[in-house]
Structure formats: C-alpha cells, structure tokens
Amino acid sequence: MSDLRDLYQEVILDHNRRPRNWGAIDAPDRAADGYNPLCGDKLRLTLRMEGDRIADLKFEGSGCAISKASASLMTDLVKGKTMPEAEDLVDKLQAMVTAPMDKPEEDAALGKLAVLSGVREFPARVKCATLAWHTLRAALEGEVAASTE
C-alpha cells in the first residue's frame, strides 16, 4: 500500500474512532434522517442556520467506518458555509466517488475529502461514503429523510 493510501486509511479510521460534531443540536432549524438499505447505515443530521449559512451541524447514528468518517469530515467542512457552498461540495463529492477509475482525481478541489476517493475502487462502498451528503442535501432542501437508493 502506498504512503498516500496509508494516510487516507488513517484519516478515515481517525474520523471513525473520534467523529467530529457527534451528537444532536437541541431545537435544530433543520433535521434529516439518512438510511442506506444495502448495509443498514443510519444517521440523523441536525442543523442550526443563520440565514443561508450553516452555523452548526451535528450527526449521530450507526454505520460502517466509511459512513461515519464521511459524516465527520462533512460536518467539519460545511460548518460556516452558505447553502450554495455546501451544495457545491455535495456535488463535488458525488462526482469524485462516482468518476470512472481512469479519470484522474481532482484532489486539490476537494481538500480533505480526497481521502474518500478510494471508494471508487469499491462501488458498493460509494453509498456508504455519500449517505451523509445525501442527508445534508435533504436537510438543506427542507426534506426530513434521505436514502441512497
């Protein structure tokens, strides 16, 4: 395994063991539940908004290491962003993890999210990596549930 892959694996394991922004916001402005029926991953995302800016967000639930790490990374990266900025990150993450293997990764545009690029090699894990992001989009659009189906 390359040094870069070792680093990516370590970042994912760290976010799984010590997820950032774990828990729930009391009296959130928005909330959505996400579910991946293929593997059983579930999460609840709660947000506090200030205008169109995400002032705070937290998640809780159960799932695999990829799902939990992705949610942890997402909450760190979108906190303080406007809704359009957060939606842009959702689109970029989705494009990265579903891109063909022969297409070069655009790591620079995604920063820390590049650690999730490895799921491209494992199509069944793409839904694990995107669950939190689908749930964020649902919350931003005022929906209460999201699924990776």
The count of strands amounts to: 4
Indicate the CATH class. Answer: Alpha Beta
Straight-line distance between termini:
32 Å
* Beta-strand content estimate: 15-25%
* Domains, number: 1
Anisotropy-based shape: globular
List the helices and strands and how they pair.
Blueprint: H1 3-17, E1 30-36, E2 41-50, E3 53-62, H2 65-78, H3 83-98, H4 107-110, H5 123-140, E4 145-147
Parallel strand pairs: 1-4
Antiparallel strand pairs: 1-2, 2-3
Helix pairs in contact: 1-2, 2-5, 3-5
Outline the structure in words:
The chain is an alpha+beta fold and 149 residues long. The chain has a single domain, classed as Alpha-Beta Complex (Sufe protein. Chain: A), CATH 3.90.1010. It contains five helices and four strands, in the order H-E-E-E-H-H-H-H-E. The protein has helices spanning 3-17, 65-78, 83-98, 107-110, 123-140; strands at residues 30-36, 41-50, 53-62, 145-147. It has a four-stranded mixed β-sheet with strand order 3-2-1-4. Strand 2 and strand 3 (53-62) form a beta hairpin. It is globular. The model has no long low-confidence stretch (mean pLDDT 88).
Question: Keywords for this structure?
Answer:
single chain; 149 residues; alpha+beta; Sufe protein. Chain: A; 4-stranded mixed sheet; 4 strands; globular
